[in-house]
Each structure stands twice: as C-alpha cells, then as structure tokens.
Amino acid sequence: MTSRGVVYMAWGQAAIEQAEASMASLWRLADLPVLVVGDADAAAHFCGMRGVEVCTPDVEPFDPERKAGYQFLAGRVKPLLYGLSPWAETLYVDADSAFRRDPAKGFDLLERWEFVVAETETRTLADSIAGAAETQWTANWCGVPWLLYHNSGMLFWRKGPAVEGLFGLWAEEWRRFQGWDEQVALLRALLRSEALYLTVPHLWNTRTPGRAMLLYHRFGVGVARRGDVAQEEAAAARLTEKGRMIRIQVGRGRYVQCRPEEAETYRERYGRK
If you compute the radius of gyration of the chain from its CA atoms, what whole number of angstroms results? Predict the structure, then answer.
C-alpha cells in the first residue's frame, strides 16, 4: 500500500495548540501518521506522542521588521515540505484547520493527478492579498488580472520529479518578492511547472463551517491565537446568517463595503494599516 501522511507547520505555542487540535479532528476520521515541521517548542511538545514525528529545519520564518500579523513568512517553509515529507503521498494542512471528512478522497485523486489544491475564496488574482507590486507583476506576466489562484492551506501531492520541480519553482517564485503571502507565488510556479495538478472547489478548504467538504479552515478571522473552536464556528455561522457584506473605514471619511474576509485586503489597498 502507498505510504501516506499529513504534515503541519507549528512555530510558537498558538500554532502548536492549533495543530494538536487539528490532529485530534483528523484521527477521529482516519488513522494517518503526522509530521510536524516547527521549532524547538514544537519538538518538545510533541516528543513521544504516538503517530507524530517532528522536524526542526534550519529556517527562521519570522521577520520582526514587518508589522504585527504579517511577520510569519510561510513562503520560507512551505516550499521545503516536499523534501521533508517521508511519504509517497502527502497532505499538508495549515494548523488552524479542522477535518470534517476522511482525507482519503483527496489522496485517491493522486491516482490521476500529481498535485491537488483548492481555489481560494478570494475571487481573482486582482483581489489577492499578495500586495500591489506582486499582484501587478503577476497580472502583467499572465496577461490578465482576472485569474483564479489557490489557497495553500491544503495541498495533496505524490512524490515524483515534476512535483519536486514544482516545489523548487515555488521557492524561486516566492523569493522574487518575499512577501507575507505565498499563494500568488504558487500560482506562478504551477503555471511554469510540468506537474499535473487539479484545482478543486474552495469548499474543500473553507472558512464557512457548515459548507466544509474536507477542512474547516479558520483563516482570516484572527485565530492565530488560541480560541474555542465551538465559539469560532458559531461566530462564523452568525456572520453567514447576517450576510457577507460589511462596512469598513479605509481613510478619513472614506468607507467601502466588502466581505469580512476581504477587510484586510482593502485596508492594504487603500493604505490604512
């Protein structure tokens, strides 16, 4: 049988706690081994835990020169995961994710495709959070800004030369701008790669708990800190019931309406930090 496993990143206590909670949700549905890629605190926390191995790569993902909330640079780590995973088939998930279904369906897709990733809930490249310079450069390179891109919080892959090359291209593309967001760099890498990849709907990896096909992913709602999952789900459900549009201030006397998950994007776009 093909070897399979799940990879997490965990730097810092909040991520460690989130990863542990995510593992519990995984193991209620599937008996899969886990690799945690993280810091010395993660190694100490998970040491001796059944079904868990820990890897502490020689990389510093934090940049203290950046503003709060944007200091963790996943682009320094995620492209390394191909080489760190010991399995023939791997699922990477962000720590702030809870499994709703057995990931076997995603692994089974690897019989036909080499790499599987969900579309992002942001509408297009033009609405991305990658920053104006990277977004514009990518739009010019692609020839159009209205392109689908992907959420790198859920990645299935099987080992092989093409996917190894894809991760190498991802590292190369991320270094081009070295931004907080690594997902637009992934788009460019996919378009340059020879890997056979499949884009699945965003419901595979969504922040709407009642609609999650595989993962309820609590991105964009400030849960990099420890929180109560039940309360977070209830809050997200209330947001959905009330409608998705909110009003935010982007400058003196200037307001825009947007969806809750887009608020930070618009503040960045209009220069209100």
Answer: 18
Contact 4, 88 (CB under 8 A): yes
| 98 vs 122, more confident | 98
pTM for the model: 0.82
Averaged pLDDT, 207-222:
84
Q: Is 150 buried (19+), middle (13-18) or exposed (0-12) by CB count in 10 A? A: buried
- 256 forms beta bridges with 248
Region(s) of the chain under CATH 3.90.550.10? 4-241
User: 101-140 burial, b if ≥16 CB within 10 A, otherwise e?
Assistant: eebeebbebbeebbbbbbbbbbeebebbbbbeebbebbbe
Alpha-carbon distance 36 to 54, whole Å?
5
Position 240 confidence tier, pLDDT thresholds 50, 70, 90: very low
pLDDT tens for each residue of 104-118: 999 999 999 999 999
Residue matched to tokens 């340059």: 192
Alpha-carbon gap, residue 72 to 61, rounded angstroms: 6
Burial 155-173 (b: 16+ CB within 10 A, else e): bbbbbeebbebbbebbbeb
Rounded-to-5 percentages of helix, strand, coil across the chain:
40, 20, 40
pLDDT at residue 250, rounded to an integer: 67
Check whether domain 4-241 has CATH 3.90.550.10, yes or no: yes
